[in-house]
């Protein structure tokens, strides 16, 4: 019984440590139905500076794999030649600074100099990266966007955690796609 409690506690800890994914937007064109499409492929991803970085390419592949698995689970087939649906991926990452404001409870007790003053100020606590992924589904025959979804999350530093967060985010983003 004690082992079950420890396992349950570890599982809850891992779930709590997974960064939350927020769906900012999910919008379909009028009359869009995923059942009207049989095959899909990805647009080529281009970037000004980061495409030569192996870590960047690895992260793109993690995202593509998660999207491919989600669309395959919905009945579509990945086809590099003449697909019905094209998937466009847009990625934006920003470095954020986490701060907190000092309070008067933290003020030093010693005030030995007359000109000494203490001010409440913002103190840097940590830094993190936040990412936004936009997934557009484009009807290849008409070259018209038929669905758009946007997801946001904090980007984990560890590779294994990144894969879990991406998988969770893509499943959440594409979960209601019909």
In short:
With 178 residues, this protein is of the alpha/beta class.
Write a structural description:
This protein has 178 residues and is an alpha/beta fold. The chain has one domain: Double Stranded RNA Binding Domain (2-Layer Sandwich), CATH 3.30.160. Helix content is 29%, strand content 34%. It contains three helices and six strands, in the order αββαββββα. A hairpin with a 4-residue loop joins strand 5 and strand 6. Helix 2 runs parallel beside helix 3. The radius of gyration is 23 Å and the shape is elongated.
Characterize the biggest β-sheet: 6 strands, mixed
- The tally of beta strands, per DSSP, is 6
Task: Classify the helix fraction into a percent range.
Answer: 25-40%
Q: In percent, how much strand structure appears in the residues? A: 25-35%
Quickly count the helices. 3
* Total individual domains: 1
Classify the fold: give the CATH topology. Double Stranded RNA Binding Domain
- Mean pLDDT comes to 82
The first-to-last residue Cα distance is 43 Å
Side by side, the strands of the main sheet go 1-6-5-4-2-3
Order of helices and strands: HEEHEEEEH
Domain DUF4136: 30-175
InterPro entries: DUF4136
Pfam family, one: DUF4136
Signal peptide: 1-24
Give keywords.
6-stranded mixed β-sheet, alpha/beta, elongated, 178 residues, Double Stranded RNA Binding Domain, 3 helices
Q: Strands, helices and their partners?
A:
Elements: H1 2-17, E1 21-28, E2 39-42, H2 54-73, E3 77-78, E4 85-101, E5 122-139, E6 144-155, H3 159-174
Parallel strand pairs: 2-3, 2-4
Antiparallel strand pairs: 1-6, 4-5, 5-6
């Amino acid at each position: 019984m004690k082992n079950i409690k420890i396992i349950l506690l570890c599982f809850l800890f891992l779930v709590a440590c997974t960064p939350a994914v927020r769906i900012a937007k999910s919008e379909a064109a009028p009359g869009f139905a995923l059942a009207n499409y049989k095959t899909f492929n990805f647009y080529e991803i281009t970037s000004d500076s980061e495409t030569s970085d192996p870590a960047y390419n690895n992260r793109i592949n993690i995202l593509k794999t998660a999207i491919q698995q989600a669309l395959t689970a919905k009945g579509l087939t990945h086809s590099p030649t003449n697909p019905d649906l094209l998937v466009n991926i847009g990625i934006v990452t920003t470095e954020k600074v986490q701060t907190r404001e000092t309070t008067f409870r933290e003020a030093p007790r010693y005030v030995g100099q007359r000109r000494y003053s203490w001010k409440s100020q913002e103190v840097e606590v940590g830094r993190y990266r936040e990412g936004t992924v936009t997934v557009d589904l484009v009807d290849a025959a008409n070259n018209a966007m038929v669905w758009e979804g946007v997801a946001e999350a904090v980007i984990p530093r560890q590779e294994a955690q990144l894969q879990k967060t991406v998988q969770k985010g893509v499943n959440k983003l594409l979960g209601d796609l019909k």
